Amino acid sequence: MFKNQIEGETKNAVGKAQEAYGDFTDDNEHRTEGRLRSAAGQVQSQYGEVVDNAREFTVKQPVGALAIAATVGFVLGALITRR
């Protein structure tokens, strides 16, 4: 696990605890803030997982990663110069 995944999981857990506290005290502000924090944590954790998978793919298949990068660069270049 990398930094983003760990931080994301931590934010998710804190958000769920804050949401539970809001439910317990019937405080909509804490409940909403907890839900938002939990959602942000899930997004950050998923981002970390995508980066981890991309890193593993690049290490295992460097030629394939280079071909993908070249294709993306070519397509972006063609779209930009088309104007």
Question: Layout of helices and strands, plus pairs?
Answer:
Blueprint: H1 3-25, H2 28-60, H3 62-81
Describe this protein with a few key phrases.
mainly alpha; elongated; 92% helix; 83 residues; 3 helices; membrane; YjbJ_sf
Coarse shape: elongated
What is the H/E string? Answer: HHH
Amount of helix: over 70%
Beta percentage is under 5%
The low-confidence runs, each spanning 5 or more residues with pLDDT under 50, are none
Euclidean distance between termini CA atoms: 43 Å
Q: Biggest β-sheet: count, sense, barrel?
A: none
What can be said about this structure in brief?
Pfam families: CsbD (PF05532). With 83 residues, the protein is mostly helical.
Note down, in words, how this protein is organized.
- Residues 4-55 form the CsbD-like domain.
- Keywords: Membrane, Transmembrane, Transmembrane helix.
- Pfam families: CsbD.
- This is CsbD-like domain-containing protein.
- This protein has 83 residues and is mostly helical.
- The chain contains three helices and no strands.
- The radius of gyration is 20 Å and the shape is elongated.
- The model has no long low-confidence stretch (mean pLDDT 91).
